[in-house]
Amino acid sequence: MTKLTADNEYFKGIGQISFEGQETDNPLAFRWYNPEQVVAGKKMKEHLRFAGAYWHSFCGNGTDPFGGPTHIFPWDAKADVLDRAKDKMDAAFEFLTKMNLPYYCFHDVDVVDYGNDIKENERRMQIMTDYAKAKQAETGVKLLWGTANLFSHRRYMNGAATNPDFHVLSHGAAQVKAALDATIALNGENYVFWGGREGYMSLLNTNMKREQEHLAKFLHTAKDYARKNGFKGTFFIEPKPCEPTKHQYDYDAATVLGFLRQYDLLGDFKLNLEVNHATLAGHTFQHELQVAADAGMLGSIDANRGDEQNGWDTDQFPNNINEVTESMLIILEAGGLQGGGINFDAKIRRNSTDPADLFHAHIGGMDIFARALITADRILQHSEYKKIRAERYASYDSGKGKAFEEGSLSLEDLRDYAVAQGEPQTISGKQEFLENLINRYI
Predict the structure, then answer these.
(1) Can you tell which superkingdom this protein's organism belongs to (predicted)?
(2) Pairing of the two strands 42-43 and 38-39
């Protein structure tokens, strides 16, 4: 990446963040993330493909339901919409470059403020797309994926693609078209559909079957447009169970896979999974990863965490080494992410108000994933982890167990086998041993 000059710096006094190793006491250095280090046959940067979240890092102002902004950004000072958007993009690429983040992701309305005039919104996005293209060329930072915000505006209070009013759906389509145009122009590697309000609050006023059919038709239409205009990347669906709607149609990985299969969308779509969304669905992140991996649909992830004492999407930076290590075991065994990367869809806390706090947050997140990658590879290469799991299912590898997997046993055959063999032997699942194994390698 090209280093930016000190002219018009937004993060003054903070230089290039580099790898210094585990012995360093420098809080503005990586202890584990060494992008060129080879792990499991690939460079660390190729495994992890980190991306910065444009919305949280450069738009999130610390507002919560009980108070106004606490993060007052210097790039928000100008009155003119486009001047302000360009300042924000200058700050974003300064940060991305100093952090050695190879990718970024955006919603359309994060790049530049949108109003209610579609043509004016498209004009603004085109100007900012050209500006971003120059920034990408200058720095080497690339676009991992783009998306459209179809949930914040009041018109989307009942959804966008699933809205009962066709007029609202058409506005959502206009936004998606512009966001796809920008993604294609910026050589974005993927495009995400995040259904922030694609669901319902009450079935009393909802035709659920019709709404899901509309959502499928909307996705097919957007996909066809993108392919026609040269988009070669992957489309992602990001599951989320609730908040703000009571029940969303993209509830979890299994629900989305069923939807994609039912409406013939599997060929173009994969899943973009988020830790905190898994929590809200009552799952672990590892569960969601495994569901997607087993289906060959593990595309990308949003890295964050929730708060066990809060029942909403707090989007904190990841710091649980056990959770991330177990997640990396699944990702490695699945052969890695398919097309995507690791986007830090996470925000610094409301009371973290120093410019350096954004750096500390990303350094910690990148280090935790790098450490987990190294640990997971060591577990797979040198421990009994895979052997124990294989032995647990050994009865299906030969004889009648194998015949059952191959579909050659009837229900009568299974009954006769049970009679002949008598009561099964009790076999330990060794859960505590495996939990200790993870800790031993960490």
Answers:
(1) Bacteria
(2) antiparallel
Q: Is 315 annotated as a binding residue?
A: yes
Q: Residue 419 is encoded by which pair of tokens?
A: 């009679």
Largest CA-CA distance found in the chain, in angstroms, rounded: 82
Q: Considering 107, 171, 214, 362, which one is annotated as catalytic?
A: 107
Query: Token pair 């799952």 is at which residue?
Result: 283
Among candidate residues 108, 110, 367, 377, the one labeled active-site is 110
Which phi and psi angles does 201 have, rounded to 5°? -100, -30
247 is in an annotated binding site: no
Rounded Cα distance between 255 and 234, Å, is: 19
For 87-98, give the DSSP string.
HHHHHHHHHHHH
d(CA 285, CA 369): 14
Its pTM stands at: 0.95
CA-nearest of 30, 23, 34, 75 to 54 is 75
294 assigned binding-site residue: no
pLDDT in tens, 303-356: 999 988 877 789 999 999 999 999 999 999 999 999 999 999 999 999 999 999
Among candidates 157, 155, 140, 154, which has minimal Cα distance to 104?
140
Query: Which distant-in-sequence residues (6+ apart) come within 8 Å of 23 by Cβ?
Result: none
360 belongs to an annotated ligand binding site: no
Q: What is the pLDDT of residues 175-201, one digit of tens each?
A: 999 999 999 999 999 999 988 899 999
DSSP character string of 240-308: ---SSSSEETT-SHHHHHHHHHHTT-TTTEEEEEEHHHHHHTT--HHHHHHHHHHTT-EEEEE--B--T
Instruction: Express each pLDDT in 32-71 by its tens digit.
Output: 999 999 999 999 999 999 999 999 999 999 998 899 999 9
Inter-axis angle of helices 355-382 and 385-392, to 10 degrees? Answer: 60
Q: Which domains does the chain have, with CATH numbers?
A: 38-382 (3.20.20.150), 395-441 (no CATH)
Cβ proximity of 56 and 362 under 8 Å: no
- What lies within 8 Å, CB to CB, of 66 at 6+ separation is none
Q: Give buried/exposed letters for 317-341 (b at 16+ CB in 10 A, else e).
A: bbeebebbbbbbbbbbebebbbbbb
